[in-house]
Queue: 2 jobs
Job 1
Amino acid sequence: MRKAVIILPTYNEAKSITSLVEQIFQATASINNWDVHIMVVDSNSPDKTGEIVENLYKSDHKKYKNLHVLHTQKEGLGKAYIEGFKTAIEKLNPYVLFEMDADHSHDPKKIPVFLKEIENGADFVIGSRYMKGGSIPQDWGIHRKFLSFFGNWIIRLGFMNLKITEWTNGFRAIKVWIVTDSLGHLQNYTGYVFQVALLDNAIRMKAKIKEIPLKFVDRTEGVSKINSGQYTFQTLWYVFTHSSFIKFCIVGGIGFIVDFGISYLFIVVVHTAVWLATIISAETAIISNFLFNNFWSFKHKKLSRKSGNFLWSFFKFNVIASESILIQTIGMELSTGIFGRHYWYIFKILIIAFVIIPYSYFFYNKVVWKDQ
Ligand code: GDD
Ligand code: MN
């Protein structure tokens, strides 16, 4: 029988942990093709959460034979998960690992639904608050609602992966091979940002991702341990350094230099006609952008390398690039027409930053280089 290990990280969850363990075993009792285990990873909680679980096990070895506890130092949520994953893999040989909050925010009745999706072929199942049927708590403060909602959108747009609606919530079922192969990558993300890092890595590994709706319930006992400032910063930094966006901007910059350099060479040094210099320089920049993006910025995305497909993608790239010239021309005509020519360079910078860059990034991701 395949084994599923539910990792429950705890820090001061004394009031919730016993009832949650009971509810999980209840909700999974009728599943007969999975051997469900719970591993509580307690970071030395001062309120003795760890001991409560130890005592629960001691009170009835038989009933709680599938309950395990791991004691760790308090080094962040990500670190607790990493330790829990490692120990579970070493000691229990699981087929699937679960992430789940221990404060009753995640309904144990959903566990069989996650397992069904794994049986149906998913590698990574996400409980999503932002897909149809999912929700965040009504009584969350505006601050937390805002952070969670926009946080998820920034991540979706940064990675240009609009299919996945939930990046941050920690109710997930993940096949063990993905976790094993992600452990190295995760070492540097020991806080809450670990959630984003793990999903990002799974996508790069071409894991089959499936979302199921989840109604997140606000905790009634204890307090949240999230540090929103640090979490926001680390998440933004992660997206900035791991998405294709910076590389895409650098490639654009190189393209600009190529375009300018060749124009200069042809117009000033070789003295060709201006139209000829412009065509040659612009197309050389387009070719250089395409190659750098293909072999660098969007390397992990899929552009079928069959030669026919390569040329077809290059053609689509040319169309998008030409359209951006058209958009820029119209934008410049309109803005200088309305506000005068004096500040033309400000309009140009604004158009490039707020129209051309988002436009190209979006279409390169959607039309030329795709996710899977
Ligand atoms: N072992 C351990 N060590 N557990 C921890 C630590 C830690 O340092 N920090 C938090 N936890 C445990 C909590 O005890 C709880 O069971 C679970 O991790 C979630 O922590 P909360 O403090 O309740 O965080 P939250 O509800 O604000 O966070 C939720 O949203 C985050 C962002 O969307 C969770 O779903 C997170 O997984 C999610 O990343
Ligand atoms: Mn919580």
Job 2
Amino acid sequence: MNETMMFEKVFRDPIHHDIQVEHPIILELINSKEFQRLRRIKQLGTTSLIFHTAEHSRFGHSLGVYEITRQILNFFTRQYPKDLLGDYGWDDTERLVTLCAALLHDVGHGPYSHTFESIFKTNHELLTIDIITNEETEINQILKKVSSTFPFEVASVIQKNYPNQQVVQLISSQIDADRMDYLLRDAYFTGTEYGTFDLSRILRVIRPHKDGITFNASGMHAVEDYIVSRYQMYMQVYFHPVSRGMEVILDKLLKRAKELYLIRPNYFEKSSPLMVPFLKNNFNLEDYLDLDDGVLTTSFHMWSKSYDPVLSDLAKRFLNRKPFKSVAYTDETKKELDLMRELIEQQGYNTDYYTAEQSSFDLPYDFYKPSKENNKTQIELIQPDGSLIELSRTSDLVASLAGENKGDQRFYFPSEMLAIKSDTYTLFEDDMETFNNMIQNGAIKKTKEVNTHDN
Ligand code: NI
């Protein structure tokens, strides 16, 4: 115990100033090769192509989640000890398992996770569990120094079936250490002001409860502010249409590579050997841990010189940041998309690779949606008489945001289509009406000239 108390190492951080590592096991986990790999994976993937300073890594975010959790546990230990409060208090013997789960919650993430997972059918949550429990990893060896069952305890926190729900909800709930860190960190590194909220206030009103985590009613405005910030980050940053336009290119590029591999495996074994286990859909954990942003970027460089014009063109578009453009469509205007695809095909593009329908509803979705059936994840305030009230029932602001599906559906196509000129019309981005008029008047069909232009 004394040895643990004396141990301290500090990581400097722009969000939390000092991240204090107070246990040797935590430092060993940070120094493991599986955790160091997170330095080489950008937290926001293609969003960094829109917000140019958003180059922060999953490594920094993971340390940040650890630090927020550590601060909460210090506060709980001082204010709400189990010795005094029984089931309503915090049991500090849970500290190490909670901190390990906080630190490792994203360790299974790979490069450009969302797109990579949809093409290659990987799953970062299952991979996180595998990295923690697989005897081949350094992380597993380190956790086993605590006890032989400790890796499984850490894994069960992340899988949300750990018996102590206070521990689970600190890492995973509507207002947990993970979300608090990424909102603040992503707001800071994108340079936007939307995601900021009063973390220090939230860390004073959070408290343990019998089956989880609640907030003092006096802290309602701080919690409300967090929900509004989250909403704004989704609308302004995470659902950014141009970032999605780059994701569409990445999606089509990986899809093309996967299809070509079936015909020309030798080309990929030579040009991008670390991608081969995924292209042939036969990978193990070691193959997965070899991946990072750099491996993908290098593969794209190689593919940009490929014999295949589609693979080469899509790789160049990704490397040189030439996003597909988009128009928003509704259920009524969706019928026009067939015509748009026809026009795009007339210009010589294969619409399987050069058009996409993409809905922000398909992106990882995290607005606040309280529901009676799923009351473990709703935010509850504890009132002076000790009763709990769900946040949207007491905050009009949150009520107006909660439960609604907000987002859009967009049709993506090559930006060169915007430069197709006619006597009467120029097509502008985001202008479905113009596009429809052009189609009805045959304006596009008359046009032969295609100018490429920069975005
Ligand atoms: Ni996270």
